[in-house]
């Protein structure tokens, strides 16, 4: 046995170099496969048999579309970047020193609103897919909404809100009555810093709670499953979907920030009537 290396034909490659080459090739194959799986996640029909039709998809490859409404204090608070493993992403950031007085209700935020036709009708059935990444240096020192299903009326709490708090992910669901509010903790934000997390929301809005569905999956596993509970407001047939950072209680921490999150592609599917 040759202890100096491995022969490829007449070429002798030393073991240390061989191991380096092996892991470079292996990592490349794994990353390519993982990237393909991640991108397919947003394009594949939620169920077999064409029960759903794709009504919206955005992968940020062409920047931020003019059709998307943007709420931010500065242009650089929301911008597209190149991101390893997912091609393109949104970088969303806010800082305590910014002037938010001209942004929506004046509270700290940097958010986007998906355009028409992404509006949610009572009793209709939808699948929304998106992804988030929390930076490695993220500090869990304040509470911020990171995804919202917002009612058409601009004021008031949204019927669905995914938040990041000091204890991790929290989903809030509410209807017309405060007694219907559900608050559900979701594991494990602290351990997931630095990697992409993939979300899928099965949403059938129902102001009266009849036949309503809020099923949220994280990385393919169901983390919230609320059936026949109020998850929208009466007569609201134009609710919209928001991604980004929003501090509904204002900036209560002494930390100046910035607070930064990343968002990957997003796709929205609607169930075909009668299927």
How would you describe this protein?
By secondary structure, this protein is mainly β. It folds into two domains: 1-43; 48-271, Jelly Rolls, CATH 2.60.120.200. Helix content is 11%, strand content 40%. The protein is built from one helix and 18 strands. It has one helix at residues 15-43, and strands at 5-8, 11-14, 52-58, 69-71, 78-83, 87-94, 109-113, 126-133, 144-150, 160-165, 168-173, 182-186, 196-204, 213-218, 221-227, 240-246, 259-263, 266-271. The strands form three sheets. Strands 3, 5, 6, 8, 13, 14, 15, 17 and 18 form a nine-stranded antiparallel beta sheet that branches. It has a seven-stranded antiparallel beta sheet with strand order 4-7-16-9-10-11-12, with no helix packed on it. A two-stranded antiparallel sheet has the order 1-2. Mean pLDDT is 85; it is low at 21-36.
């Amino acid at each position: 046995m040759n202890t100096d290396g491995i022969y490829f034909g007449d070429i002798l490659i030393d073991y240390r170099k061989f191991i380096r080459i092996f892991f470079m090739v292996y990592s490349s194959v794994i990353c390519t496969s993982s990237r393909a799986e991640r991108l397919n996640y947003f394009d594949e029909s939620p169920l077999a048999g064409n029960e759903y039709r794709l009504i919206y998809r955005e992968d940020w490859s062409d920047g931020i579309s003019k059709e998307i409404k943007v709420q931010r204090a500065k242009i650089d608070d929301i911008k597209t970047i190149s991101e390893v493993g997912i091609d393109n992403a949104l970088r969303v950031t806010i800082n305590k020193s910014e002037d938010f007085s001209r942004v929506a209700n004046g509270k700290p935020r940097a958010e986007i609103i998906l355009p028409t036709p992404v509006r949610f009708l009572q009793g209709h059935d939808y699948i929304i897919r998106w992804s988030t990444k929390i930076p490695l240096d993220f500090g869990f020192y304040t509470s911020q909404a990171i995804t919202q299903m917002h009612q058409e009326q601009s004021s008031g709490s949204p019927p669905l809100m995914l938040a990041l708090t000091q204890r991790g992910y929290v989903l809030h669901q509410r209807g017309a009555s405060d007694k219907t509010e559900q608050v559900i903790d979701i594991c494990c934000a602290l351990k997931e810093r630095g990697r992409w997390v993939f979300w899928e929301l099965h949403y059938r809005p129902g102001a009266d709670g009849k036949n309503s569905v809020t099923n949220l999956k994280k990385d393919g596993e169901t983390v919230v499953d609320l059936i026949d509970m109020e998850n929208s407001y009466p007569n609201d047939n134009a609710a919209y979907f928001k991604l980004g950072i929003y501090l509904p209680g204002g900036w209560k921490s002494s930390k100046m920030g910035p607070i930064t999150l990343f968002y990957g592609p997003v796709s929205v599917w609607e169930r075909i009537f009668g299927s």
